[in-house]
Amino acid sequence: MESVKQWFQDWSDACEYAKECAPDFSFLKSFAIGEPYTALISIAGVCWLVWAVNERANKRKAALLQARAAAAGGKALGAALQDMKPAPAKAEKLAA
Which of 43, 47, 78, 87 has the fewest CB atoms within 10 Å of its CB? Predict the structure, then answer.
């Protein structure tokens, strides 16, 4: 923990001295794959994130609609069954 505190203190001192308050992320360069591939991976990551958020929203909306249908389904189902029952048959005269 002390090393992290010291790093931030060094960064703060350098920031005041250089008048540029941007942290030093030069150690991340070793993880870089290469310019075109980094951009493509970043674009793919953003697309996946948008897709995942959209799918989650769709699932929530479907669950909400299903819950509403289940709550109202008892009354609607009863009315639909009443409509489906055949009316009592009247006695018809048969032609001779």
Answer: 87
- Identify whether the C-beta of residue 21 lies closer than 8 Å to the C-beta of residue 15: yes
Tokens of 25: 């992320």
The tokens describing 85, both together, are: 């029952």
Q: Which residues of 24-56 are buried (b: 16+ CB within 10 A; e: fewer)?
A: eeeeeeeeeeeeeeeeeeeeeeeeeeeeeeeee
Chain segment 16-36, per-residue pLDDT in tens:
766 666 666 666 666 656 677
Spatial distance between the Cα atoms of 15 and 23, rounded to a whole number of angstroms: 8
Confidence of residue 87 (pLDDT cuts 50, 70, 90): low
